[in-house]
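G., before I forget:
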Amino acid sequence: MISTLELQQFRGLEHVKFEKLGRANLIVGGNNTGKTSVLEALVLLYGSHDQLNALPRTFRELPQNGQDLGRGFWKLLVRGENIFEFKIEGDSETLSGWLKQENWIFGKSSDSQGNLSSVVSIDTNGNVGVHDVKRPFKLSVLSTKQADPATVSDLFNQIAPLNPENETKLEDLLRQSIEPRLRRLRYAKPQGTHTHLVYVDLGEGPMLPFTQLGQAFARTLQVYCEIFAKRPNILLVDEIESGLYFEGLEDYWKGLMAVLEDQDVQLFATTHSRECMEAAHRAAASMADDPLRFMRLDRRIDDPSKIVATTFGKEEMQTAIEFNREMR
Amino acid sequence: MTPHKPIPLVLCEGKEDRLVMEMLAQHAGLEGKLAFQDYGGESKLRAYLATLKVSPEFARGEFSRILVTRDADADFAQAWASLKGSILAVFSSEPMTPGAWISTEYGSQIGAWVIPGPDKAGMIETLCLEAARTKSPSHFGCLDPLMACLENLQGEKPHEKVRFAIWTIIAQGTGAKKRPSLERAIDHLPLDWGDEAFIPLRDLLIEVTS
């Protein structure tokens, strides 16, 4: 797990530092304060070659022929026009980026002398070249975009061979937080269909493809498949509350936090929802090891170009709830 | 909605303190120039300050100054020490004297004040009663003997809040029908907001906005 994250001259952020990070970290803040930039920084720091390649369109919308905008994404990594270097520091890794003749060079160092352990280059067309990448953490990334149902289903199919108990656990989690009628899940390609999908037995007639059960079910299934099948060290989720009904949020968080602990995964998730923050707090309050932190970005009113970072935990959130104080 | 300019924040111990401070600010021509919040009693002050320190308003720099107040109750020195201790625990620095300011991160200044004023025991009700005595002495001709009688009967001086509650009944005259909380009674009470008793606190509120 990483316990601090520091960004300098990265996108709209001059210098922000988040400390005392937890098992589950909820990133909040007003519009355009840099929540997504934090997720992007983590991809740059710990992402794979494929994740780096996909980064321009992972969390941001690009038009179908958006190659120019994709290239523009890399140019916008630094905060201002006359700045040609940025820095992202996690616990065991520092990434420095230099813009040289319109090409980005990212150097990573993981020792105290600052010796580069790997170098990534991004050329003017946005092509990613990676040399000698050593990644201390394995990263999974979930954006707000609807995942391909076949991909989610394939992930589900990988869970049981890795650990059959996790498939049962996944069914329990979905039953507790989303669909109490759930009896079992099956990976299947019924006659007359072309793709293997996860089918859901609700005990009411034929099994249904999971895509028929709504966004919350699909999203939750995707999150757990990602954890159980890919076994990441760090999971990034953009807008984690997306599609979830507020009444089920606390159960959702209870289940998710237990799985994060059990599978040794650290979560970084953005949210706009006060209900989501409070539900996560209530769920975490019953857990022994204080797993939840809130990371917030705020724009200064005396200097709107400046963003400041605040990290806080359960004591502050409890008082905020008691006094009906807005903490987003 | 986020304001465009920082304003001072006055933290009050309870709703009644807040109400009196708001009225005092209004009569001092400071309406809209100060924000007020109450922190629900001195036992909650430290947690309240800790949460305020990580709040969006504080991080955005919406508070130019934060004045933390509490009642002295029976012991000014103890109340001041407790108030300073809460500020020190949260902001790692403490004001040296009542009304002095210290700087914190994100640019806000913090000051503290014990009511009714330096080296005095009492509370916000004490100030109100002092301010009322000049304006309507006849009410005290009734209240003071009653308090003396109660003290004699109970063997100890009645609490200031008891004295205040009974005064609000007397001062409202025949209009008093419900529990005479300050909130309900304040518009009907013969309080002189320009009275000498309020001057130190009023001047502090003016200074906070300067």
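Residues 1-21+30-137+288-328 of chain A form one domain. Chain A has nine helices and 16 strands.

More on Monday.
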